[in-house]
Structure formats: C-alpha cells, structure tokens
Amino acid sequence: MIFANRIAAARKLxxxxxxxxxxxxxxxxxxxxAVPMAKLIAQQLKGxxxxxxxxxxxxxxxxxxxxxxxxESGWIYLTEYAQQVxxxxxxxxxxxxxxxxxxxxxxxxxxxxRPPIDPAGRIVIIIDDGLATGSTMIAALHALRNQxxxxxxxxxxxxxxxxxxxxxxxxxxxxCLSSPSDFYAVGQFYTDFPQVTDEEVIACxxxx
Length: 208
Hints:
Blueprint: H1 6-16, E1 26-29, H2 35-45, E2 48-51, E3 54-59, E4 62-71, E5 76-78, H3 89-110, E6 123-127, H4 135-145, E7 151-158, H5 161-167, E8 173-178, H6 198-206
C-alpha cells in the first residue's frame, strides 16, 4: 500500500479507528511527522490531541538507525543489538543526555503555556507516520501505560511484521494498515513525504 501523503494515511486511519468516534479519545502524536496526522484524526474522531515526547537513541555513525529510545520520564529502551553496532556505555550515556535535552527543549517549545493533557482513565491513541525498528513507539507506549489510560492503542499506517511482533502486549490494540515484507524505510510507502517543521507542529497544537 502506497499513501499519497501523511494526510491521506491519516484519513485511512480514521476509518480504521471509527469505533472511537465521539468517545473523546486523546490522540497523541510522536513528533514531528505524525502531528498533522493526529490533528486530523482528533478532529474526525471528536477527541483531543497532544504530543508524546520520545526520542530514538541513534547508532554510532548512523543517526537514522535506532539502537533504542528514551521517554520524557527518563525510561530507556535498548535493543539487543546496541552493543553489536558499537554503542558502549559511554556512548549510550552521552546519547541519552543529548536526547533528553532535546525532549526538554521540545516540551518548552511545543506546549509552553500548559502541561501535557492528562491521559489517566481515557482512551489514548498513539499515532506515528510509520514504524521501522519501533523503538520510539515502544518508549511512547511505556510512558503512557504508566499513566493509566483506560485503553492504549497504537495506530500507524505501515510497519514491518517483526516490528509489530515487538509491540505485542505493549498496547491493548494495534492498528496497522499495511505490513509489507519488503520494508526498507517508512518513506518508501509515501509518494510525498516531506519533513514536518517545528513551526508546523506548533501551529497544529495551538490551532494557528
């Protein structure tokens, strides 16, 4: 399945998530790419939107490849292959420090005038524009599970099968529109896949 762009993918996710319409779900986007998607989904499902701030931990010499992730509380997820690609403890500590700094900067930038929306007791749907290793989604699900939602849902347009298997048990429900076998990168499943800017994120969160 090829999506024209993120908004087209979001419209298809709305159809798949229609059971939650008018139940005031909290739609949480993993910035930045998923934020415009989450805005549309929240509007269509008559819910609220916010961001969940997690960051991938980058492999040495290959910043696009995740060796793990960290959430806003400081919880760290490391893959089983982190050391195999050269990430010793000193490297991991430095990367955790760098990504924690970025999370704090983004919280101050994205929602400076309010705290994150409380997910306790609510249907929470975490959105991303696609998963490769799934590291950031695992961190996001962990962060939200600790905040005791009534139901925790992971919703993505595309992800490989082995990544979906890693997510089993971490969400109450996983909605994935496509799980191709020939998966190399999320962007290959979009015709138009531009970077989403911080300014676009802020506009989505503030309604500007």
